[in-house]
Structures are given as C-alpha cells and as structure tokens.
Amino acid sequence: MESSHVSAGILPILSDLDQRLAQFPSLDREGLIANSPGLARWFGPEEPEQRKKTKASVLKEYETDKWAPLLQRYRDNPEINFEALRDQYQGSEEPMACFWNGRFFLTSEKIMTGIRADLLSRLAAIFLPVDHIVELGCGYGAMLLDLVGRPVFNNVTFLGGELSVSGAELSNLLAEKAQLPSKAYPYDLVAEDDQQPFIPPGALIYTSNALMYIPLIRESLIRKLIRYKPAAVIHLEPQLPVNEREHPMGPVLAKYLRANDYNRNLREVVHQAQQEGLLEILYESGPLLGVNPILQDILLIWRPVKI
Ligand SMILES: C[S@@+](CC[C@H](N)C(=O)[O-])C[C@H]1O[C@@H](n2cnc3c(N)ncnc32)[C@H](O)[C@@H]1O
Fold first, then answer.
1. Which of 93, 130, 221, 242 has its CA 20 to 30 A from that of 274?
2. How far is the centre of ligand 1, averaged over its atoms, from the C-alpha of 69 (Å)?
3. Helix, coil or strand: residue 78
4. Which of 60, 116, 163, 188 to mutate to test the pocket of ligand 1 (most atoms within 8 A of CB)?
C-alpha cells in the first residue's frame, strides 16, 4: 500500500469525524480551563510532582487498580455484556472538555470513546483484506472487541496482546460471551526475548494508548514489530507536537507528558528506523485526539520495508 493511498483514505475519515464533533460547542483556552478544573494547575507556573513509569507502576495501575477489579465486577455480574461494561467504565455522558484535530470541544467521554473506536476501525479498514488484526496493549478489549464486532471485519480474526493477565482474561471472557473471533494473550511490548507465536505474518498491527507507558522506546521494539512481518502498523499514541516550542499548547502538553513520564520518543525512533531503511512511514499526523485534552494522540502509520 502506497502512502498516497493511505493519505487519500484518511482524509475523508478525519473530515467525517470533524463533522460529527462540529455539533458540540468548541472551547477556547479559557473555556478549556474553566471546564477542566482538574487540569487547571497544568496551565500555571506550579512545577508538578515528577512520576516515574516502571513495569511495576504500570502493573499496579492496570493489573491491580483497573483490570483485576473490572474482571471481578464481571464475575459478580456475569450477565453484563461488553458494551454495558465499557459504558460503566469509560462511557460517562457528563460534559467534558476533549481535543480533536486542533480544537477543544465540550463533549463527553462516551462520545470520545466512540470517536476513538470509529477512527481505529476506519483506519484498519483501509488495509483490508488482511486475515488478522492485532492490538498490542489491548487492555480489557475496549477497542479490540468494538472493532471485531463490526461487519466490515467479518472475515478477520482479532488478536490482542496485553501486559495485565486480568485484562487479557476479561477480554477473552467478553469475546467468548459474544461469540466474537477475538483472542487476547499475555504479552509484554518491552520483552526482548520475544517468543510470541500468536502474531501471524501479514497481520495489521495497531497500538492505542499503550506505547505511551514505555518512557523510552528502543529501536529493538520497532525491530521486534518488524519481525512479525505486519502488513502495516498503526500507532494512536500521545506525542509532543513537532514544533513544540512554537505550538501554543506546547509547554502545557510537554509538562503533562514529562511529569507523568509518558513516552516522548516514539516519533523519533520510527523516523530513525526509516532513515536506516527498515520501514516506510505511510502517514503521520499532528496532535489529533485527546479524551484528556492535554494528552493528545498523534497518528503514525508505517510498514516494514521488504528486503
Ligand atoms: C490506556 S490502556 C489502553 C487500552 C486499549 N489499548 C485502549 O485503547 O482502550 C493501556 C494498556 O496498555 C497496557 N500496557 C502498558 N504497557 C504494556 C506493555 N509493556 N506491554 C503490553 N501492554 C502494555 C496496559 O496494561 C493497559 O492495559
């Protein structure tokens, strides 16, 4: 697939989603701060406490504090299905400030979760036909199980890799219940000694807010993805704007990413791999999507160079 074909496929997706969000009031910087009381401190001179991301802190956040309790909630209410569980967990309809494609909107977590899934699903559809779509860092399947249920992917098997054992298990229980062709496996993106036969050659691989938990990505991770021989790799992950210093929100976005020790070098490491002739970047956006308005995902799509 050529980069011009990918860009031509992405343009209408972005403009459709622009239109969907146009019905919500847009917010200027003051409106954003007024509607995001928890975020106001990031706009001031106060220096935040610096956190350090480690495998142990990620496991505490996801295995212990998020996915194990969510798995327990499912076990306690086994009649609940994927959609209802996701709605309980990340489907609040309370008005909330969010970011989309250069603008802030007053919308809701539910709307933005839907936008995220629609964006990933339509991006993935550009690469059809493929037999497998793989999400690495799939959590309990918030995106994986949304995508696998869509008619456009009728002939596709979905696979997930996830650091948290409870996340992978919950994703599998929800898939089994809905009889969806999706299977998640315990998986560590960072592990060097990778013995993961579950990713078949030719798959479309994507990551959605997962690589952000690796403060410094090494080129070996990109080389590992290349060894899976994917048709393409899609990242929807937060990164700083390229022109961070000139960007009006640059200092706030940088302060937030640094203080939380979220990844800042994905773009750089992918560009480095392109310079080394390992891969070809098919598409790269500026700041595109933030359910949290100061944690803005970019879209970066690449494919291995065939040798
Ligand atoms: C914010 S959640 C995103 C879940 C899902 N991708 C989505 O978009 O809804 C981040 C997930 O990445 C997983 N994760 C973080 N570091 C990982 C790693 N090294 N390997 C695999 N998964 C990882 C976490 O356990 C968590 O489930």
1. 130
2. 16
3. coil
4. 163
Note whether 277 and 245 are within 8 A (CB). Answer: no
The preferred substitution site among 135, 140, 209, 263 for testing ligand 1, maximizing ligand atoms within 8 Å of CB, is 209
Asked whether the beta carbons of 161 and 136 are under 8 A apart, the reply is yes
Q: Are 202 and 261 in contact (CB under 8 A)?
A: no
Residue 67 Cα, ligand 1 centroid: separation in angstroms? 11
**58 C-alpha vs ligand 1 centroid, how far in Å?**
9
Contacts from 238-242 at CB under 8 Å and sequence distance 24+? 238/209, 238/212, 238/262, 238/263, 238/290, 238/295, 238/296, 238/297, 238/298, 239/263, 239/264, 239/266, 239/267, 239/297, 239/298, 239/300, 240/264, 241/286, 241/287, 241/296, 242/267, 242/286
Work out which ligand 1 atom sits closest to the CA atom of 137: 22
Continuous segment of H or E residues that includes residue 233: strand 232-238
List of domains in the chain: 54-88+114-304 (3.40.50.150)
CA 191 vs CA 29, 137, 142, 185, 288: distances in Å: 41, 13, 23, 14, 29
Do residues 102 and 91 lie in contact, with contact meaning Cβ atoms separated by under 8 Å? no
pTM of the model: 0.97
**Pocket around ligand 1 at a 6 A CB cut-off:** 58, 62, 137-139, 142-143, 162-164, 167, 187-190, 208-210, 213-214
